[in-house]
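Hey, resending since the last one bounced:
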Amino acid sequence: MRVLGIDCGSEFTGYGLVEQTSSGDLRYIACGTIKLSIRESLPDRLNQVYETLRAVIAEFHPDNVAIEDVFYAVNVKSALKLGQVRGVAMLAASSCRLKVAEYAPLSIKSAVVGYGKAEKSQVQHMVTTLLRLSAPPESPDAADALAIAICHLHTAGTLERQRT
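The structure tokens again:
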């Protein structure tokens, strides 16, 4: 199974693709960061997220998409912008006929680090270790996206074992 993880943000949106082999090993496919200019209009930034994610899906053919669930933010304006980016990410996935799974930040950190309140640096370190990367992903947003994909693979594996 190949999963595209997406870490939505109004300035940086990370994406990461991870595959689980038939033997259960995790394999890194790709990752990156969509850098959004605050100088551009919001509709143009949302279009950039949409077009980039559609291109990533077309290039790497994931089986599923996983994104971080909404968390509560102090700044309402930031939360609304984040919600719009999340909506565009979901639209990009669903327009390609892919199912979208959502995970709480605590679940993602627990799945990857084993502790739901882990620091970003701990997530980055564990992603590097679990995927046997020679160096950490270049951006924390890409590392978070890879963590989201890993969380989905672990969760999907657990659900599959429970079904059988």
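The radius of gyration is 15 Å.

Sorry for the duplicate.
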